[in-house]
Amino acid sequence: MTGERVDQIFVVAKRWLLSFLNDSAPDWVNPIASSLINIAAVLGVFVVLFALISVLERKILGRIQNRYGPNRVGPFGLFQPIADGIKLLIKEDIVPARADKVVHFLAPIMMAAPAILALGVIPYGRNMTAFSIDGGILFFFAVGSATELAVFMAGWGSNNKFSMLGAMRAIAQMVSYELPLIITVLPVVMLVGSLSPDAIVDAQAGYSHGFAPRWFVFMPWGAAAFILFFVSGLVESNRTPFDVPEGESEIVAGHMTEYSGFKYAIFFLAEYFGMFAVSGLAVTLFLGGWHAPLPLLEFVPSYVWFFAKLAALLFVFIWIRGTLPRMRIDHIMSFAWKFMMPMAFTCILAAAVWHYQSHGWAGWLSSLGILLAVYFALSRFLKTGKNLAARTYRFAE
Amino acid sequence: MNTAAFIFIAVFTLAGALAAACLRKLIHAALCLVVAFLGLAAFYFLLGAEFVGLVQVFVYVGAVAVLIVFTILLTRREDEDAAGFNWSGVIVAVAVFAGLAWTILKTPSLAIIPAAIEPLTIKRIGEVLMTNYVWPLQCVGLLLTAALIGALVLVMEEKR
């Protein structure tokens, strides 16, 4: 069957590569070679995707702002990332004289490593998970939490007030939004009964009534959790409208102020890899992973579906960047604690109600009812229209 | 293979811990402590305790290290040079280590070769936590919630 062969083409290719060393090699060579192939594949695919998305982002932003965007290098400006890469490589690498040299040097590496590790546990297609472990979701968040330390290292190591302020802001908002990010994952983990991304994708297989996919985003709790997860993901990857850590009108470029040349490029890469990882996890958790949206579209290979969904989410990231202004830091924080947290907990409750009413219509409606009730109660309770006075500053005049 | 990994991780962890104890700048020491935390997590992975290893990274690298770093940042001024070598700390550390080593070496069950245990899945941990240990779990949850609310009350601004 050709469809299946196309679907498994990368798995077969890997097996073919491994078949070269089956004789005379010691036992431990095979798993290491297998891992190396996986790492090379993930890195290769995502570096190319990074290049493509960086030019696409500029193109889309250009379109939104009624200008052309890059269109000089290659057809439609597609070779722009190569030109940018060469430019960044040959730029001078400036390290401030008073900087902490070692910490300053290690920060970009510490920043990129967790993002790359997190990409490893996401299932990109049928039998295509680079690093398949039982606690994949936990692994994702465990390595992701190291990013905060990297941001701190960048801010502190630069020995610059703008850097330190930017790092403080970044860590404050990342710590705050990590809670809703993780809590919105819980309903999915609860219903599937596993922390493994592969099991979560398997649980979303099949179609109810023969056509409607069983993705979690089509349940009321799933839709709410998906939106909350996506917003938290925006904050975690420091994207607009939550990019106050690098608000250029106030603190130059935040923790990246003192970085230039290739180190700056690594920060840029880490930001995009983080974006890919969060979007990939959102696709895995709520959008059915690599499953096709309709039964008659099953012939399209699984990885095509995964990357199509990923591209759609990335487009939304860029779209939001092109349309929304930056939020104020205190608004961001109070939004996290006063709105996102209660809503995230409500998602767990709504998912439990849906589950114990045997996944039927009654459960669907009552979980929607719970979510709407909490949503309207929160919006009434948090109404701040009455105190629209001028803001008072504690540490400034 | 496992022995090689063990030696590598042990050297890595000890180097991190030693650097954390000896470095002049407190922030450097805190960052080296992270290396030691990561080494411990690697040990758990080597022993097949995947969940504990992941939680080690999650809690210690993601939360405790950030907390330590911030505490140093918000409380200390540039007085690192004033700190001399702290001999009392060394004595306490050696005493604790000697006590632990003495207890471990005297443990009779150390000589018994353990039976091969099947790797513990996260599902199994969850089941046990929700059945046999549900009361301890709830108590810890209550305690942590109380601590969280207490911390918030402490730092909350007084209304004028």
Verbal overview:
The complex is a heterodimer of chains A (397) and B (160). By secondary structure, chain A is mainly α. Chain A is built from 16 helices and 2 strands. Chain A has one domain. Chain A has a two-stranded antiparallel ribbon. In chain A, helix 15 runs antiparallel to helix 16. The termini of chain A are far apart. The mean pLDDT of chain A is 84. Chain B has 2 domains: 79 residues, NADH-ubiquinone/plastoquinone oxidoreductase chain 6, subunit NuoJ (Four Helix Bundle (Hemerythrin (Met), subunit A)), CATH 1.20.120.1200; 40 residues. Chain B has 6 helices and no strands. In chain B, helix 1 packs antiparallel against helix 2 and helix 2 runs antiparallel to helix 3. The longest helix of chain B has 26 residues. Chain B is globular. The model of chain B has no long low-confidence stretch (mean pLDDT 82). The interface between A and B is medium-sized, with 26 and 23 residues.
Features of this protein?
heterodimer, A: 397 residues, mainly alpha, two-stranded antiparallel ribbon, 2 strands, B: 160 residues, 2 domains, 6 helices
Extract low-pLDDT stretches of chain B. Answer: none
Strand fraction of chain B equals under 5%
**How would you sum up the global shape of chain B?**
globular
Termini gap of chain A:
73 Å
Strand order of the largest sheet of chain A: 1-2
Oligomeric state of shown chains: heterodimer
CATH topology group of the largest domain in chain B: Four Helix Bundle (Hemerythrin (Met), subunit A)
Classify the secondary structure makeup of chain B into a structural class: mainly alpha
Mean pLDDT of chain A: 84
Under the CATH scheme, the architecture of the largest domain in chain B is Up-down Bundle
Quickly name the level 1 CATH class of the largest domain in chain B: Mainly Alpha
Q: Mean pLDDT of chain B, as a whole number?
A: 82
Please identify which CATH superfamily of the largest domain in chain B we are dealing with: NADH-ubiquinone/plastoquinone oxidoreductase chain 6, subunit NuoJ
